[in-house]
Amino acid sequence: PISSAVGSKSFTAVAINTASKAGEWIVSKLGDFNNLQLKSSMHDLVTEVDKGAEKMIRNLIQTHFPHHEILGEEGVEPGPDASRKALEQVSHAEYLWIVDPLDGTTNFVHGFPFFSVSIALAHKGEVIVGVVYNPVHNELYVAEKGKGAYLKGKRMRVSSELTLDHSLIATGLSADRSHAMPVNMRGIQAMGPKVRNLRVAGSAALHMAYVAAGRLSGFWEIGLNSWDMAAGAILITESGGRVTDTLGNPYSLNVRHVLASNGHIHDEMVRELGAANATGF
Ligand code: 2AM
Ligand code: CA
Ligand code: CA
Ligand code: CA
Fold it and tell me: EC class of this enzyme (predicted)?
């Protein structure tokens, strides 16, 4: 059943349109913004651009789907369990949009061109649409449940490496210095010598899109929130890859750490992170 759509725009069309508009605006503000603020610590940044992009995204989604709920990073109280707490409050929602208006804020602030807009739609807790947009490269990654994942009109497939020593793997270092970062440093220590090489580029959503596109064979990170992963997760599963938490448990909106891969190297990654005591909980 179509839930009170204005006109006949599909969920996916609205997600694409919204991510594109927000992304274009974000890029127009590169190097030209002020009012840099700190959230939980001096490593946790937010700008007027994060907030403005979220407002723009909320407005566009609400115009088309006024009865849907929206969970966005800049709309919730910051904190270690921000996303889970917020998810509890919208657990009644049939349709829930999960939005990271700007994933890679630190990169944006420094002019390092690796950041993205991430928009997902969940139906009864299951992600059914995911869009990640990199406005610097004008690359829009889109997936629909059961219909595949696409980049520039071409179907995406995950990479085909069978072992870690042939794999390019990415990870992330969260702003959380007390818990997530030390855990992930152990992961890097363990994984570094096993893989072809490691990348840590600072946008979880974009790293996951790269796994979907076959540019990375795998990605893991500790200390994430639902809006960092929801769109990336469906991009990967619809590209033939696998997404779990770092212990190998099934992915859900509530997970706080993620392991995403082409599938072939998944168990090997779970084993290595486990052996290094580098998994989330
Ligand atoms: P952000 O840029 O939207 O904040 C980098 O490793 C990843 O961690 C990014 O996806 C980044 O998202 C996210 N991140 C940054 N600060 C964080 C924090 N304090 N807690 C959890 N995740 C964070
Ligand atoms: Ca943030
Ligand atoms: Ca984020
Ligand atoms: Ca963000």
Answer: hydrolase
